[in-house]
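Structure in, sequence out. Go:
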């Protein structure tokens, strides 16, 4: 099912200029990689927010040890999923307003392989359950009780995801019950040297990751606990193909973060990739998608954050957001990871 399983190491070596044995087209491809900061720099892995940096490192290591692109993106996003201090992905995520932590995730290759789960409960690694949906069912998407039962059937351990800290935040929220997602609460978790420490009480965040090899094959993953204190049953953009994540062979991929409703209205990442398919750079494509949301929604998106992150098959990257503060992690072909700030449409 998954075609993009060729070893990643060859890709790393090729793009780093190390490898002999490159085919002529691949050699040509490597030469066209740009080095403009923020838009090129032969990226091989990108992911959302500054906590994406350790996730990228894990993904790179998995590739180096022979893992496929799907193995890489899965291993990468499992890092924040397992972090109890990250209150928006996996274990330790903030619950819905009824006190249930529910997870959404999607994984996708560029050969039609897709698996997703939404409203999954009692399971740390939603991304691995999504992968199991892709590899072991005739379906692409399982939700709610069915997704959770499938996870048990596949042997994923039952874990109570509601940590005492997250429960306290929920009980505090119950006092006011004011549902007001805070923009950029995700930042400062890595760059500030405090891995996995989120910024505020109403945190939400998501990791979306894209990886590619030297031949331009790609895969992506996206996983979240969604918006803190959401309505029970609410599903955001993250697990929906074309909203939270989209990857297209020969073109590139995109992932999104922020207030998911604003992305699902516009099928944001499918739009970014379609623009790239029609010749836009990843940067221009991310900007176009964010501007489209703004023109569609006007005042309704005041104070709302949405961020798009894209990478094309050549390793050119693009990132753009509505409000300042969206950061992303980029790993180059040598394995070096840096955190960058995305330009924004609005100043505040
Ligand atoms: C959601 N997009 O569930 C996710 C949340 C998120 O940064 O990305 N927060 O709407």
């Amino acid at each position: 099912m998954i075609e993009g399983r060729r070893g990643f190491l060859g890709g790393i070596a090729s793009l780093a200029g190390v490898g002999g044995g490159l085919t002529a087209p691949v050699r040509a491809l490597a030469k066209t990689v740009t080095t403009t900061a923020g838009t090129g720099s032969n990226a091989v892995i990108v992911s959302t927010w500054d906590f994406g940096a350790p996730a990228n490192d894990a993904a790179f290591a998995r590739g180096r040890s022979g893992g496929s692109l799907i193995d890489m993106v899965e291993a990468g996003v499992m890092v924040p999923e397992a972090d109890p201090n990250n209150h928006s992905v996996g274990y330790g995520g903030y619950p819905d307003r009824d006190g249930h932590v529910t997870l959404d995730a999607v994984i996708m290759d560029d050969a039609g392989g897709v698996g997703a789960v939404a409203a999954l409960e009692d399971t740390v690694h939603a991304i691995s359950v999504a992968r199991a949906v892709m590899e072991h069912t005739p379906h692409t998407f399982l939700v709610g009780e069915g997704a959770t039962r499938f996870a048990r059937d596949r042997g994923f351990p039952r874990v109570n995801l509601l940590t005492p800290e997250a429960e306290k935040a929920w009980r505090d929220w119950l006092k006011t019950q004011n549902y007001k997602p805070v923009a950029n609460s995700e930042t400062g978790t890595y760059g500030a040297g405090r891995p996995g420490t989120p910024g505020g009480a109403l945190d939400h965040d998501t990791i979306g990751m894209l990886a590619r090899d030297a031949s331009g094959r790609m895969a992506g993953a996206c996983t979240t606990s969604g918006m803190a204190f959401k309505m029970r049953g609410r599903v955001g953009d993250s697990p929906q193909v074309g909203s939270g994540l989209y990857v297209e062979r020969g073109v590139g991929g995109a992932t999104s973060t922020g207030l998911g409703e604003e992305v699902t209205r516009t099928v944001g990442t499918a739009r970014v990739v379609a623009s790239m398919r029609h010749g836009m750079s990843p940067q221009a494509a991310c900007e176009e998608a964010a501007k489209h949301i703004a023109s569609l929604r006007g005042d309704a998106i005041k104070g709302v954050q949405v961020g798009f992150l894209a990478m094309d098959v050549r390793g050119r990257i693009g990132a753009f957001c509505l409000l300042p503060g969206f950061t992303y992690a980029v790993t180059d072909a040598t394995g070096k990871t840096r955190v960058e700030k995305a330009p924004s449409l609005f100043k505040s």
